[in-house]
Amino acid sequence: MEIKTASQKDLESIVPLFDAYRIFYGQPSDLEAARTFLNERFGRNENKLFLAQSKGEPLGFTQLYKTFSSVSLMPFYILNDLYVASNHRNKGVGKALLEHAQLFCKKEGFKGLALETALDNPAQKLYETLEWELDKSYLHYFWTNPNPSGV
């Protein structure tokens, strides 16, 4: 297995995985929307996406977005997406992707990585084995725009 930093050149390998990831979270399949979204992120240099593959077969990915902490005055990454194809789970792919993201963050000199996950996500055990700490000090709130299209 190899993990590489993906770019627009890898779009067609990533789109089916990204679509499956969205389906996993209850969204309808939409390969074209997935392609457009990822193409925009790459085109604007808004993401870092790491692709795990073996002999050219895509196994999984993780996607990071850069943000900042005003309190610590440091940049950090949000690990927004982590997905491993169902036929490659429990084979170390997720762990390798997380470790790759951690190493990347260290090389960049960033404060760290943040993620949020569902309360019933079994990957929580994996996060904890890789020294991710559950933050019990803060509440997480989210405001949903009732009209996100701006119309």
What does this structure look like?
- Keywords: Acyltransferase, Ribonucleoprotein, Ribosomal protein, Transferase.
- One of its GO terms (molecular function) is acyltransferase activity, transferring groups other than amino-acyl groups.
- One of its GO terms (cellular component) is ribosome.
- The protein has 151 residues and is an alpha+beta fold.
- The chain has one domain: Aminopeptidase.
- Helix content is 32%, strand content 25%.
- The protein contains 4 helices and 5 strands; from the N terminus they run E-H-H-E-E-E-H-E-H.
- The chain has helices at residues 11-24, 31-43, 93-108, 124-129, and strands at residues 2-5, 48-54, 57-69, 74-84, 113-114.
- It has a 5-stranded mixed β-sheet with strand order 1-2-3-4-5, sandwiched between helices.
- Strand 2 (48-54) and strand 3 (57-69) form a beta hairpin.
- Helix 1 (11-24) packs across helix 2 (31-43).
Beta content comes to 15-25%
CATH topology: Aminopeptidase
Number of domains: 1
Q: Which stretches are low in confidence, meaning pLDDT under 50 for 5 or more residues running?
A: none
Order of helices and strands: EHHEEEHEH
Question: What's the helix count?
Answer: 4
> If strands are numbered along the chain, what order do they take across the biggest sheet?
1-2-3-4-5
- At the fourth level of CATH, the homologous superfamily is Gcn5-related N-acetyltransferase (GNAT)
From the spread of the alpha carbons, the general shape counts as globular
Mind telling me the CATH class?
A: Alpha Beta
